[in-house]
Design brief:
By secondary structure, the chain is α+β, with helices and mostly antiparallel strands. About 40% of the residues lie in helices and about 20% in strands. Strands 1, 2, 3, 4, 5, 6, 7, 8 and 9 form a nine-stranded mixed β-sheet that branches. Helix 3 (about 95-110) packs parallel to helix 4 (about 135-145), helix 7 runs antiparallel to helix 10 (about 330-340) and helix 8 packs antiparallel against helix 9. The chain is globular, with a radius of gyration of 26 Å.
Length: about 600
């Protein structure tokens, strides 16, 4: 079964269970400073899992592009990916464990669906802990469906518990479904969750039935939700009997394009295979990021920096395969062709994707030239070292300052009869990674989506600010992005010139006037076209469902949005613009705060 067939069957199955298919969202989270990318299928659904009503109802399903970069250096083996697709279905206060588990079992084993033999399936459930009982309900449901007791495994919180997203909020046990590959057990304790490769996780069903309070106490929720996720690449590889996701039709066409460029044959040399897999994964991720409705471009910060790193790592591995000139456009074209049916925006942004890849690729090739020139400058002093060893700190400076890969430093050193102190370099690099992960971890630690009182106020202010900008500057104003934390808000908008002091003061005054008026904030659910007819503003490039929520702030603002918002503006406080500056060509950025 191909990935496309799996995607189609999954959606069709849940439609038979009265689920509404919703559109997968951007890989760039909106109004969520806690992560750089959408990292899981459930990420865009967090507000609704937290209690916000969804305009499409209480039973939902979709497929979603995801980007995870925590293991970017592990990509190159036969399994790791930075870019992948997730299938998901959700119950928002509707069905719970019995239906969720039964439907998962039916989809996996049903002859008209995946038709997996029952004896290939094993499951795990939460073993319980002090204050939270063992999930015997899920175990009983599995056994009633035909999974024998010996293949139902009770595991601890680290394996079978989700959440909360922040320090407090909805959370609960999960049950994970594993496929037995038929490999020999690694030992007496081999079971699902073991890393030996005998068991492959296919599906995870999360049951949000508890609320964790600030004191660490867990209480039962009256509104219980289900969130499930299945990885497309991994599942389709398993269904096809492939040892690796790279052996499936998802990646083989990309691999073939690289084989033609390099003259290398995939499967003949492990070092070459590693480089080919890295290029495959990273090019696909780069295409999805640039081609996203809210796509970012290569830069030195945030998501743009991750994109730059993916592209440059691809270029470096292209050089390892003998490619000295720009080449990424070739595999990128294959990615666009293969995924444009599922993600039409890739075709719409084809030219932009190819232009940005080429620009960044040529820029990095120039960087490599500078790195080589810097190495030549250092060479006379390095040659004086009688041990013929280049200090690791020198190699790391070339890497950190010039983006010059240590492998190329080693190659140049070898040409002059020298070696690099790799241990010293690795220590410096490890320290660099730990600092990066620490910063990334702190971003994530803030909560998957912060819906505190203050961020809700800031989110409401983005509506007031946009309307004020339109009224002061003109109808050409369109939101180009926003970022909210508990300390401030950032709002990007289309405008060709810097705002004058008078314009800034006028916008700020207009926002505060609406706050003082204590306007009511109301919401209606309607068809998207009807919403546009009423004059509601919608974010350009955003994928909306057929049914949308329209928030009105008194007689001042009307906008298509998912929420959350205050109930009336008088609770917000005083709005203060701190800075107005350029964000990019034709885009301005306002940084503002709320003061008590």
């Amino acid at each position: 079964m191909t990935a496309n067939e799996l995607r189609f069957k999954y959606i069709e199955f849940f439609k038979t269970k009265n689920h509404t298919e919703i559109s997968g969202k951007s890989v760039i989270p909106e109004n969520d400073p806690t992560v750089l990318f959408t990292t899981a299928g459930m990420h865009p659904l967090v507000p609704y899992l937290m209690g916000e009503p969804h305009p499409s109802g209480t039973r939902l399903c979709d497929y979603q592009k995801c980007i995870r970069t925590g293991d970017i250096d592990s990509v190159g083996d036969s399994s790791h990916l930075t870019c992948f697709e997730m299938l998901g279905n959700w119950s928002l206060g509707d069905y719970f464990k019995k239906e969720s588990i039964s439907w998962s079992f039916e989809f996996l084993t049903g002859k008209e669906w995946l038709n997996i033999p029952v004896d290939k399936l094993s499951v795990t459930v939460f073993e319980g802990e002090e204050g939270i009982p063992r999930d015997d309900e899920s175990a009983s449901i599995w056994m009633s469906l035909g999974i024998p007791k010996e293949r139902v495994h009770f595991l601890p919180r680290s394996d079978n518990w989700w959440g909360p997203a922040g320090e407090t909020g909805p959370c609960g046990p999960d049950t994970e479904i594993f496929y037995d590959t038929g490999k020999t057990s690694c030992g007496d304790n081999c079971k699902p969750g073991c890393s030996c490769g005998k068991y492959i996780e296919m599906w995870n069903n999360v049951f949000m039935e508890y609320n964790k309070d600030k004191d660490g106490h867990y209480t039962k929720l009256s509104r219980r939700c289900v969130d499930t996720g299945m990885g497309i690449e991994r599942t389709s590889a398993m269904l096809q009997g492939k040892k690796s996701v790279y052996d499936t039709e998802v990646f083989q066409p990309i691999i073939h394009s690289i084989e033609k460029l390099t003259g290398k044959k995939y499967g003949e040399n492990e070092a070459d295979d590693t480089s080919i897999r890295i290029i495959c994964d990273h090019v696909r991720a780069a295409v999805f990021i640039i081609g996203d409705p809210k796509g970012v471009l290569p830069s030195n910060v945030g998501a743009g920096y991750v994109l730059r790193r993916l592209i440059r790592r691809s270029v470096r591995h292209g050089k390892k395969l003998g490619l000295e000139k720009a080449f990424l456009g070739v595999p990128a074209q294959v990615v666009i062709e293969n995924f444009k049916a599922a993600y039409p925006e890739l075709e719409e942004k084809r030219q932009l994707i190819l232009e940005e890849l080429l620009r960044e690729e040529e820029k990095f090739l120039e960087t490599l030239k500078k790195g080589e020139a810097e190495f030549e400058k250092l060479l006379p002093n390095l040659m004086k070292n009688p041990a013929k060893v280049i200090p690791g700190r020198v190699a790391f400076r070339l890497y950190d300052t010039f983006g010059f890969p240590v492998e190329l430093t080693e190659e140049l050193a070898g040409e002059h009869g020298m070696k690099v102190n790799r241990q010293e370099f690795d220590e410096a690099f490890k320290k660099h990674q730990e600092l990066s992960r620490s910063a990334s971890g702190q971003v994530f630690k803030g909560g998957l989506a912060d819906h505190s009182e203050i961020t809700t106020k800031y989110h409401t202010c983005t509506h007031l600010l946009q309307e004020a900008l339109v009224r002061v500057l003109g109808n050409h104003i369109a939101q180009k992005g926003s970022n909210i934390t508990a300390e401030r808000m950032r709002f990007d908008f289309s405008h060709p010139a810097p705002m004058t002091k008078e314009e800034i003061a006028q916008v700020e005054s207009m926002v505060n006037e609406q706050i003082k008026r204590d306007l009511p904030v109301t919401v209606e659910v309607m068809d998207l076209e009807d919403a546009k007819k009423t004059g509601a503003r919608a974010l350009f490039g955003e994928k909306y469902e057929q049914k949308v929520k329209v928030y009105s702030i008194g007689d001042f603002s009307k906008e298509v949005c998912g929420g959350p918002h205050v109930e009336h503006t008088g609770t917000i406080g005083t709005f203060k613009i701190q800075k107005e500056q350029s964000s990019s060509a034709g885009v301005r950025r306002i940084r503002a705060v709320i003061q008590d």
